[in-house]
Each structure stands twice: as structure tokens, then as C-alpha cells.
Amino acid sequence: MIGPRSLLRIVLAAAGVLVLAAASLPAARADRAEPLPAELEGVGVTERLEQQLPLDLPFTDDDGRPVKLGNYFQAGRPVLLDIGYYRCPMLCNLVLNGFIEGLREVPSWVPGDNFEVVVVSVDPLETAKLAKLKKQNYVREYGRPESASGWHFLTGSAESIAALTEAVGFRYQYLEDRNEYAHAAVLMALTPEGKVARYLYGVTFDPRTIRLSLAEASEGRSLSALDQLLLYCYHYDPSSRSYSFAAIKIMRAGGVLALIVLGATLASFWMRESRRRRAATVTAEGHP
Fold first, then answer.
1. What does the longest C-alpha to C-alpha distance in the chain come to?
2. Measuring CA to CA, which of 39, 58, 231, 288 is 20 to 30 A from 273?
């Protein structure tokens, strides 16, 4: 049986390990500030967290049917939004390919099962036929044909596109001399109510970031115990634009747990000591 002093030394040693682990976490990387090419002026993202999207915006789905943006939020599940265009020569493909590569490593999150993927073209001239071809390509690339019901590739009018991109702070520019669009590489995690929960930047996406972003956007609805634990252990770091280990939370939880264990052990020790003393007193009184 571990005595109170030994237990206290173990608790203090564990606390020291936690402090060292927190101190060894990598520092957030500072973004490099470099001048943008002239064609990229005005292109980027203005983060609008908690912004409510206009869910009544009309679009056309990849089967050519008229839909409302809100159609994809009725299941009470988070939505992963990608804005680009279907004839994009490179960047849009890199973003979705990177997302699919990371998503394959998160088998507990499947489009059509517990979240939706909505891809919207910024080009009002693109057609539902092109959107359908893109959907087929990406569902095939993902390798899970049963997820097709969770992938939605939309086209729409200039008015609907402008209203959506304005709501999420997505700024792009049409390059007339190249007949292309300049835009940022970003995905957006949206809540079941259609509010912006998180922005995911880049063309590669860490599986943990995908999982935690969707879990966070779901607002705790129908999360597995493991996802709930991960949300507690990690927090989003805006400077590195990723989820990092929340050492302070773990230290606090560990400290509380250590105090509970220590208190229970000391209480048990004191109760045993009290019973021993009472027994010794009774024995002494019975044998003068």
C-alpha cells in the first residue's frame, strides 16, 4: 500500500513531467509577410467566424435541379464548404485532393454519413454537367462510392455567388487576360445551422485538423467519446492555423484528478488510523 508521502511525491513528479511537456511544445510559426503580385491584390479571406450564411440562396445541383443552400443543413450535421471553380487548372484540384487524402485517414467521418461536403463554383457560366463530372471524379478518388450522397457540387448565378462569398469573407478576382480566377486555398467548416465555425487553409490537410474542425463545427452533437476527448485535449491555434495540444487543460485535469486521488487516499489512511486507535483504546480498557 502506497503511503500518503509516497503518493504525494508521485503526484509532484507527474506534475513536473506535465510542465516539461508544456514547455517543450513547438512555438507557433509566424506568417511571412511578402508583397503579393498585382493580380492577387484584393484576393484572400476575411475570417467571419460565427457569421450566419444566407441559406435561402438559390443554386443548381450537379443533377441540374434547383436547390437552396439550406438544403444541405437540414440533417443537423456540419458542412465542409469549398469555393473555387470546376475548370480551375491547378489550385482547386490541389485543395480537394489534399482534403480527400487527409479524410481517408479519418474513417469515423464520412460524407453523407455524419457531415456534408458542398463545393460551389465562383464562375456563373459553369454548368451542372461540368459539376457532375467533377463530383464523379472526386467520389471515385475518395474511394468510397457509398459517400456520393454527401458530396454536392453546385453552380449558381452571379448574385448568389456574390452573396455567399461575401458572407464567408472569400475574396477572389477574375483574370480576364487568362480567363481564370485568382482565389485563396481554403476550406470552411460550418455548423448545422449554417454558421462559420473554422477556416482550414492550404492544399494539404492534417487528418487531426479535419477531424477536430468537423467535431467542433458539429457543436457536440452525436460525437463519439473519442472525439469529445480530442476536443478537450486540443485547441485551435490561430497563429499556426492548426490544432495544438492543450497542455494547460491536461495539467488542470491532471491536477484535479491528483487532488481527488490524494484526498481519497488520505481519507482512507485517516479512517484506518482512527479505527486502529479506537481498537487500541478498547483493548487497553479491557486489560488494565
1. 111
2. 288
Yes or no: is domain 38-219 CATH 3.40.30.10? yes
Q: What is the mean pLDDT of residues 215-235?
A: 52
Contacts of 116 (CB under 8 A, 6+ apart): 72, 73, 75, 77, 78, 79, 80, 150, 152
Q: How many CB atoms lie within 10 A of CB 265?
A: 18
Is the Cβ–Cβ distance between 25 and 247 less than 8 Å?
Answer: yes
Mean of pLDDT values over 227-235: 40
Q: Where is average pLDDT lowest: 26-30, 41-45, 195-199?
A: 26-30
pTM of the model: 0.68
**264 vs 89, which has greater pLDDT?**
89
Pairing of strands 242-245, 151-154: unpaired
- Judge contact between 192 and 216, C-beta under 8 A: no
Domains in the chain: boundaries: 38-219, 250-288
Amino acid type, 113: D
| Residues with Cβ within 8 Å of residue 233, at least 6 apart in sequence | 245, 246, 249, 250
